[in-house]
Write a structure and sequence with these properties.
methyltransferase, cytoplasm, globular, four-stranded antiparallel beta sheet, TRM5/TYW2-like_N, Rossmann fold
Length: 327
């Protein structure tokens, strides 16, 4: 099977393998192979490989000795990975512990296994976890070539939204003024800065803002990211009319901040508005709320109506990409 591999001279193979392992980039499903003086080291995320290494596609065999959690359990468990933390969502504590033990006994790279113990709640959008294996809930998540340090017990982060974040980020152009009103640890803000935008990123959670600043440094964009702890409404005094692009990823309550968004918008601004609505009319309530806040000061044009994911029975998490143009 053809997979992305780092190609290095044989004599540099072990040091390169260790460096890739330290970044959690080794794809342990496949064998490391040698040919004509080079080693081919399979990697999971070629965009995260340092530019000093050459990445090529190579036919390499699957590892025959890999042990999966399913091999240990006799069934395929459901889980998510966030860096080297594995996340379960099991109602039965005994089943959750069995799965955690199987993960620990498998070849799956994991330092911690947790089970969801509560829903996301509170003003800071965090949840409680049962730690079943390991100790630390801090990890480094890699997404489309960027690294995000975070502690899942202290901040909100959803790896399921990676594709949606990438969709928005690809629209960003160099020199834009981009404003993220509910920024978390920076999964929108940092990649937007990497594309050349000047970014203001705000969040109520002081721990998230500290991680945001760390992640800006980690990804080499600290000069382009202004991280602000506090309520997005407080941005209006300094950033009125500043934004060319606004991300409002706070489903359920983003509508309460639409007057603030309009005040922050420049003469032309693209608004990425996230909402959760019933399947019968997933986009209508958000669109009506945006028009009520923006008109008549702005012309409002819908560019994209997108269902991001199913949220609950008969409810969708949706995004409206809306262009505001000052009259």
């Amino acid at each position: 099977m053809s997979v992305p591999c780092v190609r290095v001279p044989t004599e540099r193979g072990e040091e390169t393998r260790k460096a890739l392992a330290a970044r959690d980039l080794l794809d342990r499903r496949y064998e490391i192979t040698a040919a004509e003086g080079s080693l081919y080291i399979p990697v999971t995320d070629p965009e995260s490989v340092p530019a000093t290494h050459e990445v090529v596609d190579r036919e390499v065999p699957e590892r025959e000795t890999q042990t999966t959690p399913a091999d240990v359990l006799g069934f395929e468990p459901s889980y998510e990975r966030l860096g080297d933390v594995v996340i379960l969502d099991e109602d039965d504590p005994d089943r959750a512990r069995r799965i955690a033990e199987a993960i620990a006994a498998s070849d799956l790279r994991a330092t911690t296994v947790v089970n969801r113990a509560s829903k996301v709640s509170g003003e800071l959008r965090v949840r409680e976890w049962d730690v079943l294996f390991g100790e630390s809930t801090e990890t480094v998540h890699r997404e489309y070539g960027h690294e995000f340090a975070l502690d899942i017990a202290e901040v909100y982060f959803s790896p399921r939204l990676a594709t949606e974040r990438h969709r928005v980020i690809e629209q960003v152009t160099e020199g834009e003024h981009a404003l993220d009103t509910f920024a978390g640890v920076g999964p929108f803000a940092v990649p937007m800065a990497s594309r050349g935008a000047d970014v203001v990123a705000c969040d109520l959670n002081p721990v998230a803002v500290e991680y945001l600043r760390e992640n800006a440094r980690r990804n080499g964009v600290e000069s382009r990211v202004t991280a602000i702890e506090g309520d997005a409404r407080n941005l209006v005094g300094e950033y009125r009319g500043w934004a060319d692009r606004l991300v409002m990823n706070l489903p359920h309550t983003a509508g309460e901040f639409l007057d603030t968004a309009v005040a922050l918008a420049g003469d032309e601004c693209v608004l990425h508005y996230y909402d959760i609505q019933h399947e019968d009319d997933p986009f209508g309530p958000g669109m009506r709320a945006i028009r009520e806040a923006a008109e008549p000061s702005y012309d409002v044009a819908v560019e994209t109506e997108r269902v991001v994911r199913s949220y609950a029975p008969h409810e969708y998490n949706v995004c409206l990409d809306v262009r505001l143009t000052a009259r």
